[in-house]
Amino acid sequence: MTYAIIGAGLVGATLARFFAAKNIPVTIANSRGPETLRALAAELGASVKAVTVDEAATADIIFVAVGSLAFKHVGAVLKDWSGKIVIDVTNAFMLPPEVQQAEYQGRLTSEVNAERVPGAKLVKAFNQLPLRVLASPLPDNLGRRVVFVSSDHADASATVAALAETLGFAAIEIGKIAEGGRLIQARAPLVFQNLIKYPM
Question: pTM for this structure?
Answer without folding.
Answer: 0.87
